[in-house]
């Protein structure tokens, strides 16, 4: 056997042993309410991955009694915390252009309408994304995914919505499909043509809704480039009724529902998500108790985005209230060029502890199994248990508590995706390329 063959074989057979903590987060569905605190910690834990799939989980003593470590690439987890790969279940990472000036205009109190008049706002990104060619967009997207991977993200949701026309929307989704095949992070594509009203439809929102339903959605379904459809259900954007029409049209085409809900005004977006049995409802800064109860009753994942509230200096979503009333809460970055230009999972974790009053275990759940459920992947990823993909993060600290405690800092040592070591910070290795 050649050295390359040995390396490839070891890449398919990995044994992690003596983990200070092995955080399993077991489950095939989102954890709701108090169950979010059950993250299944195994002390002195061990894990076996073969051909990309987890085959053994337990204490090091038990696992070594059943397997011969000479047959595996062995990773010593002494002094380290081993946990599922992070799932960033809400991002807009495929876009052209940046808006740094707007960030400071907003901090200085400039109203959003004035920002629009200065050429800022979402339509600025729409114009930049329409103008960039797909190869450039793909190269930028690859760089962003590499940065996410280095922070332990093994699965990410990506939304379109910066084209607001047929060709650019389909182009964004096509870029995501190509990236999903060509790099390590698994990309879950969401069509979000209903992200804003494009300038050519100003004052004709209903016509734009009809355009999405009659022309764009059928093309998205025919090309098979999106698993979800998302709508910005918000005052001054898309009404509850318009959102319902778009999402029902998508469901008829086999595309599952997500919803930007109640971010600025309690419009009833959470209730609509429950009515349509959406996979997730996101943002939720203004959601009422009735909306929270609806999400909990219908099993809709409540995805909260604390970095967006942080960047906008807005009040935070009531994650504590959601969990206490039995909802399943996921945490995500909302990475985008306007309201949250960051994909920092460590900062999300720290803000969740400090501002959302979530427990460390709830935060881990929100970033793993509940994040996986928010993108329809709970049966495949989000936990460390037999039969699931070998998606693993190894922290360079002995406890999951350091994820929040070492505020905003990346403490990831290694990342394994589908049984392949794709990040090894201790060796300066990333995606199999020495940097």
Helix and strand arrangement:
Layout: H1 3-12, E1 13-23, E2 41-50, E3 53-59, H2 60-64, E4 73-76, E5 81-84, E6 86-88, H3 100-107, H4 112-117, H5 122-131, H6 134-150, E7 153-159, H7 166-182, E8 186-194, H8 205-223, E9 228-233, H9 240-252, E10 256-261, H10 269-275, E11 280-283, H11 289-298, E12 301-304, H12 306-312, H13 319-324, E13 329-331, H14 345-354, H15 360-367, H16 369-374, E14 392-395, H17 402-405, E15 412-417, E16 420-424, E17 429-430, E18 433-434
Parallel strand pairs: 1-4, 1-5, 6-7, 7-8, 8-9, 9-10, 10-11, 11-12, 12-13
Antiparallel strand pairs: 1-2, 2-3, 5-14, 14-15, 15-16, 16-17, 17-18
Helix pairs in contact: 6-7, 8-9, 10-11, 14-15
Structure description:
By secondary structure, this protein is of the alpha/beta class. It has 2 domains: 136 residues, Roll (Urease, subunit C, domain 1), CATH 2.30.40.10; 288 residues, TIM Barrel, CATH 3.20.20. Helix content is 37%, strand content 22%. It contains 17 helices and 18 strands. The strands form 2 sheets. Strands 1, 2, 3, 4, 5, 14, 15, 16, 17 and 18 form a 10-stranded mixed β-sheet that branches. A hairpin with a 4-residue loop joins strand 16 and strand 17. The protein is globular and about 70 Å long.
